[in-house]
C-alpha cells in the first residue's frame, strides 16, 4: 500500500466530471467496510480508495488547488491508509440524543483502547488509538477516534488462508460487543494486506 501523492490526485475539473462514479463507489466501499458493534459504536475500516475519495472531496469543497492546501489534506488523510501490515479504522460513538451522548462519552472513557480484532487461532490485537493527538480526557472520551491494528506475519497468513476475524469491544461500560465479519467485508480487508 502506498501513500497518496499530489501527482496521483485528479485535478478539480477532472474530479468534478468523474465525481458521480467516484462517489457511488465510495458509498458502496464504505458500506462494505463498516462494522457495527452494538447500537452505538461503528468502525469504518479505511483503505487507500476511501482516503483518496476523502482528499478529493475536501479539495473540491474547499476549492483548494494550491500546493500548501493539497499537502495539508495529504498529511491529514495519508496516516489512515493501511500499510499492508495493519488495518486502520475510524471509530464513531453514536447516540442520536445529545444528552444521552454526553452521559455515554463520560461513561466510555478509554473505550478506544478496548477495541480489538481477533483472527481465528491468533491472539487478540487491541487498537493503537489516536496517534495524531489525544482525543480523550479523564472526564470524557471523544465521539470519534482513529485507530490502527498491527498484524503479525502469522495473522496475515491466516487471513489470506481463509481464517475468520472478529471485531469487538471489552470496555466495562460497553461490554463484549463482538461482530464476526461478513465474508465480503473480510475479503475487502484482506485485500489491504501485502
From TrEMBL:
Highest taxon above the source species: Bacteria
Pfam family, one: DUF3501
Name of the molecule in the record: DUF3501 domain-containing protein
Originating organism: Polynucleobacter duraquae
The organism's taxonomic lineage, starting at the top: Bacteria, Pseudomonadati, Pseudomonadota, Betaproteobacteria, Burkholderiales
